[in-house]
Amino acid sequence: MMRLLQVLLLMLCGAVCAQVPDPLPVNPDSLLMEIPPAEVADEGHLLVPAPGKEAETEDARPILCVPKDQTRVAVLGYHNFSKTAPVTNMLMRTEDFRKQMEHIRAQRYTVISMQDFLDWRFGEKLLPARCVLITLDDGWKSVYTDAFPILKEFGYPFTLFLYTNYLHGRGDSLSPEQVMEMMQHGATIGSHSTSHLYPSAWRKLEKKEDPAPLMATVEKELGDSARKLRRLFGAAVDTYCYPGGYHNPAMLEALEPCGYKAAFTVIPGKVTVAENPQQIHRYMVFGDNHSIFRSAMDFRNEQAGTQMLAGAAPGSLPQGTPPPPFDVSPKPGETVGYDIPAITAYLSGVQGVELSSVRMKVSGFGRVPVKVDQVTRTVQWVPPFRIYMPNISVHVTWNSADGTRHKAEWSFKVAAPAMPD
Fold first, then answer.
1. What distance, in Å, lies between the first and last C-alpha atoms of the chain?
2. Which residue, 273, 308, 343, sits at the end of a domain?
């Protein structure tokens, strides 16, 4: 009777509202949230509901679907894992991955499959307000040995973006048999190209007067990889992940003929139903910088993909924001190319700065690991890949010798890649 009354009330309101608790507080100074594990439901973490239906969580409180334009999705991208090897951008400690999955469960976010995502973006499927899509790139064997047991334990669906030249089971690569086993427990397959070409290789092809080599390479990387994956696994391969996030007009034009419905970048941001399906935002979660994961999990931020719900462009600052009291690079308001060599704050002219206290945050990346030069008194962060976001804001904080806390902010623009003739 109570459920019938709920349904009637929702129909009268003309919308479905998500009954999700406020996010747990996150300590910005911690690298990982220490969250006690919760008991896992027998049938998985969350049942993604059909339109208008409820999904029951393990604590029996309902999470309801919302109108399509009210859903935001945080797409997470991972690479390699290890229990003991030194962490890097691309290699994450296995225990850290578990803590991140525990955080998703503790926050009661809905982990969706790639099919759920596509049905929502292109169809009429409704989802809860705050969703997470998990993707893993390249095809490292540690995905099977380290990440897969955790994902299976939590009942989380996930997508493997595989490049086919690295799918042979030798060394550190996955074998087709391991992929098939994971497909039986929630994995779907997407293409990550044939040979994972670096951007420099694409740029050389783009500079050739004859377009034939470029078009042949696009067909090999996007077309051949999809056909091989479909043949190997007998499954639909309708999503693509740009290696290094690099894409050009020739790739964009080839997506649909190659059978891809959606393609994913490395540009951070929440995804809305208005997202360009050929350039879907994704948070690349680094092993040595957990602030990106925190940023992905912060649904209080109204920034969503290429648009901010409050009306301001993501990465911009309010008009009238004072310039920093020191030189910076890129300069405030400057337009730079997407190959940003570094973001630098020159603090030599500021008196009393405790360099050990300096922190830098970059929009879309959260707190970043800066390099501090004690001699030149500069603080610098080198982006690990190209940044295609049109606006970038930088926030630097520091303490003076008397313990006073200071803050400086500035923003700059990133020019879109030039289109080849």
1. 65
2. 308
